[in-house]
Design goal:
Elements: H1 2-17, E1 26-38, E2 44-55, E3 57-66, E4 72-80, E5 83-90, E6 93-101, E7 104-114, E8 117-119, E9 123-128, E10 139-147, E11 156-159, E12 167-169, E13 175-182, E14 190-195, H2 211-271, H3 285-292, H4 299-312, E15 315-317, E16 322-325, H5 333-346, E17 351-353, H6 354-362, H7 367-387, H8 395-405, H9 411-417, H10 421-440, H11 446-461, H12 467-470, H13 475-487, H14 491-504, H15 518-539, E18 559-564
Parallel strand pairs: 1-10
Antiparallel strand pairs: 1-2, 2-7, 3-6, 3-18, 4-5, 4-7, 5-6, 8-9, 9-14, 10-13, 11-14, 12-13, 15-16, 16-17
Length: 565
Amino acid sequence: MKKICMSSLFLLLLVMTFPTKGFAVDYSITNVEIDAYLQDNGDVYVMELHTYEFRGDFNGITREIVPKEGARIQQVTASEQENTLHVEREENVYKIHRAGNDETITFTITYTIEGAVDVYEDVTQFYWPFFDSRNESTYEHLVITVHPPQPTDDVIAFGYDTAYNTEQIQDSGVVVFQYGKVPRRENGDIRVAYPSSLFPATTGTNTGTLRQQLLAEQQEQVLAAIEREDKKETLSSIAAIGLPVVSILLLFLFLRDYLLMRNQLASVKREHPSFNTLPQQKLSMPAVFYFTNFKVLNEHAMAASLLDLIRQGYVQKSGNDTFTVTNKSPKLHHETILIEWLFYKIGNDGTFHFNDLKDYTKDENNHDKYHEFQSEWQGAVKEEVNQHTLYHNKTKYSLSLILINLLLLPFLFYFPTYELYSAFIVTIVLFLTVLIYAISYRPRTFEGASIHYSWKVFKEKFLEVTKQDWTHWTEDEKMRAYIYGLGINNKRLTEKHKEFIEAFTTPTLTGRHSSTSYQSLYMLGALTSSNFLSASSATSDSSSSSSSSYSSGGTGGGGGGSGAF
């Protein structure tokens, strides 16, 4: 019963937390027909037919009608065939109630726009957005028809955005805007002007004339469209020639770099013809973790680094979970950092217990300090790697690639602007590929490739080492082999060590090995890792907060859209 209550509470919190849109009605608006009848007094009577195809349960539809400044929406009604539907208004959103399930319904909405036209001395214009970027729904097919108060052949009509070049002027002066499909959140204002003599009952005529301004703007649209098509054709030609050329050039560079790397690897393999034992130690073990394991230095690497301090004699095990610093001084900076932090900051006066680590990370005031220490230690390990010549300096080459890549940047804006979407996709793939390659390209030197390859071979071939071969390995090699597997958290390597431990540890020897022996380190490995993992978990931020909001925007110039609930 308690589980059921908790589940119900969780669902309730979800409903309260997320916007209602997350549980929106599944529908599509297959057809919209809007007829605007201009009256001689300047009002506009509007009849809209919206055909909804619902999938699943629904309670009705919404129609947002935002009037332009100075206009008012009056007498909003809704019906389905002969049935009048209840309309509920919430500011500029009208909720039309009609519940059902899996139905296709045509809703009729009527309303009057008062003060919808702008009257000038020569013409009167109806400049109106029946929808705008606030619209949440796609209209699969939209037609808007404007009817004059009286038949006339003196008409100026054009549209913007999705309404551009959709107007058809009929003999009677009726203007039909055939939009076709209109995606959600698009604009599509219409603009129609008739002689002012058709509106004798209007008041408040604006001084001056408007006809020439409208004709000039219409002409500007035509010229802009021609210019746009010319630019689109030019960009299309650039894409057809330039993108293949850039692709071939980049392919050549990538192929050249690959062949150089392959030849270097062949030389390295000739230097390491067979696997005999552990690779020579040219780097410290933490640096080996970092260099050969994708630059990862996690809690396992930190635990293994503590064991490596024991292996080198800088630290000794003085109890089941107690360690003390010896008189031997570490050679590397990151070893000094690790000892200073564990044995003098977390521990006390050169002694460290796992319980010290647990107590330290329990205090939230220490969490930032713990992460600062991790960052400092990781940085010191990275610095050791950087001090060796393990990578070629390719800064100039990478900068050259980035500069060449910047030539593609303007086209990431031009191509989608001019609806060249295929060229845009190719360009963004090329741009990101070159950028990532330029940033990440750091070819190894021969020495770096040799170290990386030798440890790669070790990971593969160590699993084939027999128990007989294992007896010929030195104690230090065995310890380094185990520390490496622990440091990169390779389960297969640690399982192989488990086989050797079980094969060579007898009851008479158990518990009698040296604190710096292979068996001793193996026994400590799992315990050390688990304690550092617990410390990392305790210092991690376990809480997260998120907020979401939704708002519909506009400029106050009218508009709206459609939806359902």
